[in-house]
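During the second year of the project, the team shifted from modelling isolated chains to modelling whole assemblies. The rationale, set out in the original proposal, was that interfaces cannot be judged from single-chain predictions alone. As a representative example for this report, we include one of the complexes processed in the last quarter. Its constituent sequences, exactly as entered into the pipeline, are reproduced here:
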Amino acid sequence: MTDRPATPGEAPRSHGRLSIRASASPRSLMDGPPQVKGAWEARVVTLFPEAFPGTLGLSLTGRALEAGLWRLATFALRDFGEGRHRKVDDRPAGGGAGLVLRADVVDRALAAAAEGAPEDPARWPVIYLSPRGRPFRQEDAARLAAAEGVTLLCGRFEGVDERVLEARAVEELSLGDFVLSGGEIAAQAVIDACLRLVPGVLGNPQSTAEESFADGLLEFPHYTRPAVWQGREIPPVLMSGDHAAVARWRREAAEALTRARRPDLWEAYLRRRDPG
Ligand SMILES: C[S@@+](CC[C@H](N)C(=O)[O-])C[C@H]1O[C@@H](n2cnc3c(N)ncnc32)[C@H](O)[C@@H]1O
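Output from the structure prediction step:
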């Protein structure tokens, strides 16, 4: 729960208006709309809680957050730091540039984020966003969205002391083969991809059913008015009103795009389509 009783120095920040304590008094229940039971929840451990909800607070995901259709809680690493200065990092063992987030600090933050969440990683995955993780794919988004919630650990500096990742069997996922300055952008990307699959967040579930990767193919090209722009026409079949022909054209376009741009996806698609 986002609204576990906070112990001194641990202050999860809840970004949904509906994060009322389970033990809320009648007065506080009157202050906001009732909590949506079983709403999908993202808990983010970060040095920069002010980065959230960020883009997640906009448009459909923002409105769904306001409506309590999903919940967001941030756990500020600084709150779990050591000593008067709440130190969260130290120099890398063995020397070298940069700083590493301390295992004990990260462990305390993850322990706080784990309160009230199921221990089973299938029900509540705990993920470290990391360039050396397994690439995050649409099937991961589907898996995380089907869980009750997810805890995301955002690294900074050189990353996180390996021991806490091992001790807590944290899964590592990467946004791609590039290096970001911190995990916050990656966490927002992962949450956003999941939210598109959380029932009720998107107005039209059909749009996710037809999106890239939904059936192993990249999506077909889109067009809208004007019918002719800078001498370029919309493919006439899309204006024909023949739904079967439109579906055929889109399928073929999706296949051609995937074959040209993503041979890896194309091979996998062919294997699934023609097994054996
Ligand atoms: C500067 S990076 C650390 C890079 C690390 N020293 C390395 O070479 O693998 C700081 C943090 O940004 C996040 N990050 C960077 N690139 C990422 C990526 N491609 N996917 C997910 N998270 C990333 C991670 O949380 C990482 O701990």
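Residues 129-132, 154-156, 158-159, 174-176, 178-183, 186 surround S-adenosylmethionine (CB under 6 Å). The radius of gyration is 22 Å.
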